Amino acid sequence: MTAGRLIVWRHGRTEWNLQDKIQGQADIPLDTVGLSQARSAAARLAALAPTRLFASDLQRAVATAGELAALTGLKIEYDEALREIDVDDWAGLTSSELAAINPEAAARMLSGEPQRRGTNGETIEEVAARFSGALQRISEEGTSEDTIVIATHGLAARVGICLFLGIPQTNWPAFGGLANCNWVSLLNGRRGYRIEEWNAGSLPEPVMSDDPQK
């Protein structure tokens, strides 16, 4: 059996999002706006009557999930595989600082060319495989009656969902980044999961994340 619906939910805003700093797996908390975003989004997601709640163990995802847990009484189940991409020593740099220090790497990141983030971080392909594997495990724990919410991070969610759905990597850039506290709804049907909603939860707004797309 597999879960009837997966809701992959990006965390609320952090101060580093606002400052255009690369976060990766740095454990940055939500700011006051991010907490408000999480509270508002949780109220909408609670209306879907979720049956299970998973989260990355980084505190920005934990706090986001906590708002939904408070409304629904669900226990948060933590999974390190839901973390954001590991950017190693790029964490804390702004896009302009990275471009000044390593212009070639910054240009490759913006163009979507394969490369490792930071000195010893992950590639896009690695984080996609990690996150897709987590979605597969989580989905297989559910039944057709389950709506499972997964509080996580923007870049990891975008590429992980694409791999999970079998979308060719050349088409991944066609799927835009997730704004803070927006989500992707995946509905299970006769042919497997399909995208029910993408970047849902608000009107279009700038995406402040580790997932630059031009």
Descriptive notes:
36% of the residues lie in helices and 16% in strands. It has 214 residues and is of the alpha/beta class. The chain has a single domain (5-200), classed as Phosphoglycerate mutase-like (Rossmann fold). It has a six-stranded mixed sheet with strand order 3-2-4-1-5-6.
Tags for this model:
214 residues, 6-stranded mixed beta sheet, Rossmann fold, alpha/beta, phosphatase activity, Phosphoglycerate mutase
Count of helical regions: 7
CATH architecture: 3-Layer(aba) Sandwich
Query: Oligomer, anyone?
Result: single chain
N→C terminal distance: 39 Å
Structural class: alpha/beta
Taking strands numbered 1, 2, ... along the chain, how are they ordered across the largest sheet? Answer: 3-2-4-1-5-6
Mean pLDDT: 94
Give the class-level CATH name: Alpha Beta
CATH topology category name: Rossmann fold
Helix content: 25-40%
* Residues in β-strands, percent: 15-25%
Q: What would a concise description of this structure say?
A:
This protein is of the alpha/beta class and 214 residues long. It has helices at residues 15-18, 32-46, 59-72, 95-101, 103-111, 124-140, 154-164, and strands at residues 5-10, 52-55, 76-78, 147-152, 183-189, 192-200. Helix 3 (59-72) links the parallel strand 2 and strand 3 (76-78).
